[in-house]
Amino acid sequence: MLKKCSFAGAVAVLLGSQVAHAQGSLTLYGIIDEGVTWSSNQKGHSAVQLQSGKLGGSRWGLRGEEPLGNGLSAIMNLENGFNATNGTNSAGREFARAALVGLSKKGLGSLTFGRQADSLADIVAPFFGAGYFTPATHIGDNDDMNWYWRVNNSVKVTTESLSGFKFSGIYGFSNQAGAFANNREWSAAASYANGPLSFGAGYMQINHPNATTNTSGALGGASTANGDDYGSAFFYGMDGGVARQQVAGAGAGYALGAAQIGIGFTNVQLDYNDGASRKLNNASANVRYRLNPALALIADYTFTYGTADHVPGSTAHLKPRWHQLTLGVDYSVSKRTEFYASAEYQLAAGDASIVSGGTLSKIAYIQSAGGASSSDSQVAVSVGIRHKF
Q1: Distances, alpha carbon 113 to alpha carbons 89, 173, 288, 383, in Å
Q2: What residues pair up with 72 in beta bridges, in sequence order?
Q3: Which parts form a coiled-coil structure per UniProt (predicted)?
């Protein structure tokens, strides 16, 4: 349940004083998600683990708004991600998920500044299974369709729906004098909805993300203190000195009775400082079917394929492939509490290789399983509970 109080009232509580006049509101909200996951193979062994945020990251936040007149409001959002298993902050940051302030205009949109989600993920991710059901995350979340990273030093424009159209654009500054492009990011995306049909598309470009020479740039952070949310999205050294990353994506959705059908495609181009390159394409089809107001079934299939050059241990032009099937069930016992179960299967095919012990091995890696498999396949099964407040 959302808890609301005035800005002035919140300050009064914190300072132990009373303020007579309140203008605006402050909303406290959050999610606690905890579950148990069994995985068939992690480095050659099966594993049973308690995991936080299996269905959606555990978090708490404050969202505020102060009317300024004529439909204009000052807005803010602070959101902390945490691990419910041990109580630690996510990505080593106090407010890893959001820290922003700005203005909104009724009937037009908003302009915000700070640390916030990327526009491409905001607009396009909802068409993918990974955008609403975390177990369906693409390998390494290579396209950010599961919001693994946020953009620091950013300015973002987001419109309200205008005759069915919606637009979002963001620019993340490098904040480094004399090196304007060293760890910067920008993206733009748009969507359209008309009745049961909706679709969206967008583009993202990042220059020198996670640069060790600029840990205060738009993405990542090379030190533990800053929290490396960009690098943690990738697996086994995919983030090895990226010079430029480009992501283009599009998706479409259609509501058919109790079913919501989605399809999506993303193209990811990774160019490295040493001349190496990777190209990954993610093609996804998914469906959500609501049997009744409390019970929903989810299914997602994603085929990831691409190319990789200059991979350590090989001089070949590699063509990796991954097949991933995700099934889920979600049951709401109330407006705030739900139980869920999911099952994921991934098969690594073609040259789906990563460097392991100085040699190349065909290895599966389900993002939510807790670790890479030692073979070309992996299965993960989870059950859990999520509570919203």
Answers
A1: 22, 11, 34, 38
A2: 69, 105
A3: none
Sequence-ordered alpha helix ranges (H) in the chain: 7-15, 119-124
More confident residue, 233 or 127: 127
What is the end-to-end Cα distance of the chain in Å, rounded? 4
> Could you tell me the domains of the chain?
3-388 (2.40.160.10)
Predicted pLDDT at 12 = 43
Instruction: Tell me the C-alpha distance between 111 and 75, whole Å.
Output: 9
- CB atoms under 10 Å from CB of 361, counted, come to 17
Q: What is the C-alpha separation between 55 and 41, in angstroms, rounded?
A: 21
As given in the structure block, the two tokens for residue 70 are 């004529």
Going by pLDDT thresholds of 50, 70 and 90, the confidence category of residue 10 is: very low
Per-residue pLDDT averaged across 379-387, rounded? 97
CB within 8 Å of 231: residues ≥ 6 apart: 210, 220, 239
Question: Which two structure tokens, joined as six digits, stand for 382?
Answer: 């989870």
DSSP 16-56: T---S---SEEEEEEEEEEEEEEEEEETTEEEEEEEE-SSS
pLDDT band (50, 70, 90) for residue 22: very low
Q: Which two tokens stand for residue 334?
A: 């109330």
User: What value does the mean pLDDT take over residues 187-192?
Assistant: 98
The four Cα atoms 354, 230, 286, 270 give a dihedral, to 10 degrees, of -60
Q: Name the DSSP letter for residue 161.
A: P
Position 7 pLDDT exceeds 50: no
